Design the sequence.
C-alpha cells in the first residue's frame, strides 16, 4: 500500500505543474485600448516578471507581473522598462 501511495504522489507532483502551466497559458489575455482602460483593471500597471521601473523618484513595485498580459499591451510601455502603464 505504501508503494502505491508513493507512486500516486510522484505522478501528481510530476503532472501538477504541467497541468497548471497549460491552463494558465491557455487563458486569453486582453489588449487594452489605452492606459486609462488598463489601469481600471490593474491600477499600478502590468509588467514582465523581473521588470524594474525607470524613474528618478520612488519606483513603482506593486504592478501586476504577467508576461502574457504585458506582451498584449507592450505598446503602452512608453519608457520601454518592461512595465506598461505604471503609476503609484
Sequence:
Amino acid at each position: 500500500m505504501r508503494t502505491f501511495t508513493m507512486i500516486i504522489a510522484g505522478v501528481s507532483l510530476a503532472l501538477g505543474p504541467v497541468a497548471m502551466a497549460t491552463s494558465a497559458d491557455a487563458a486569453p489575455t486582453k489588449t487594452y485600448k489605452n492606459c486609462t482602460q488598463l489601469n481600471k483593471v490593474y491600477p499600478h500597471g502590468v509588467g514582465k516578471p523581473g521588470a524594474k521601473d525607470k524613474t528618478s523618484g520612488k519606483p513603482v513595485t506593486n504592478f501586476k507581473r504577467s508576461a502574457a498580459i504585458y506582451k498584449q499591451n507592450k505598446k503602452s510601455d512608453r519608457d520601454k522598462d518592461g512595465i506598461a502603464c505604471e503609476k503609484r
The chain has one domain: 2-84. Residues 76 and 84 are 5 Å apart (CA to CA). The longest helix spans residues 2-26. DSSP finds three helices and three strands in the chain.
